[in-house]
Each structure stands twice: as structure tokens, then as C-alpha cells.
Write a structure and sequence with these properties.
Blueprint (H helix, E strand, L loop, with lengths): L2 H16 L6 E3 H11 L19 E2 L15 E5 L2 E4 L8 E5 L4 E6 L2 E4 L15
Parallel strand pairs: 2-5
Antiparallel strand pairs: 1-4, 3-4, 5-6, 6-7
Length: 129
């Protein structure tokens, strides 16, 4: 299991346990600590797993190496250092932003639509139907 798959598994289990509680909003540090409780091999400084690596709504440079929807996802990035824990198989609807803030793609009801070449998708969610 990859480090990102481990992180998603730990977060999904946490979401299932505390579903519907305020505990599902976490800081960057809290996300790392939560994952490390289950998988201590994740570095304490987050150098080998950054929470934004597993966000439904954020594309990092590494995502460009294969389809974004094939990466594990378990979080929504709310702001620079705050995340909502949603777990795997979340039916997300919304844009995916890259590091520059451009629309990289989007999800509609958990289905991924690619825009990694930054053509054809305006700054707001497009209804693909």
C-alpha cells in the first residue's frame, strides 16, 4: 500500500467513526497526526505525505503524471492549511484547482472530468450533462 493509500484509509476510517461531527475539519498538522496514529512510517513533518496530495479539489504537480481520478482522495482543501475529512468514494461535486488557481478539472457527483490542458472549462463548475 502506498503512503497516499495509507493516508486515505486512515482518514476514511476516521470519517466512518466520527461522521457528522465537527471533528471532520482539521488543520494540516492534525491531518498528518491522524494518519501517523495508524501509520507511523508517515514522516512527522509531512515531507513524504502532504494532505493536499489526497484532496478531491486540489491538483499538485505529481497528479500530472497520470489521471487525477486514479490517485487516492480523502480530503477537501478549505483554505491554505485547513481540510475537511470526507474519506474515499466521496461523491464530490466541484472544481479541481491547480497550484496556480486554474481549473484543472472537476467532479460531478463523484465522476471526474479532465481539464488538465486548461481549455474549455470556465472558472466555475460546468455541468457536463
Amino acid at each position: 500500500m502506498t503512503k497516499l493509500e495509507k493516508a486515505c484509509e486512515a482518514i476514511t476510517d476516521y470519517v466512518q467513526k466520527y461522521h457528522g461531527e465537527d471533528a471532520l475539519i482539521k488543520s494540516w498538522r492534525e491531518v498528518i497526526d491522524l494518519v501517523r496514529l495508524r501509520y507511523p512510517d508517515i514522516d512527522p513533518d509531512g515531507s513524504n505525505m502532504h494532505p493536499s496530495d489526497i484532496c478531491y479539489n486540489r491538483a499538485n504537480a505529481m497528479h500530472k503524471t497520470k489521471r487525477f481520478d486514479k490517485w487516492p482522495h480523502a480530503l477537501l482543501k478549505l483554505d491554505r492549511a485547513t481540510y475537511q475529512l470526507v474519506g474515499k468514494n466521496y461523491s464530490y461535486t466541484g472544481n479541481i484547482l491547480d497550484a496556480r488557481g486554474d481549473v484543472y478539472g472537476f467532479w460531478k457527483d463523484g465522476i471526474y472530468y479532465d481539464n488538465s490542458d486548461h481549455t474549455g472549462v470556465p472558472d466555475t463548475l460546468v455541468d457536463p450533462s
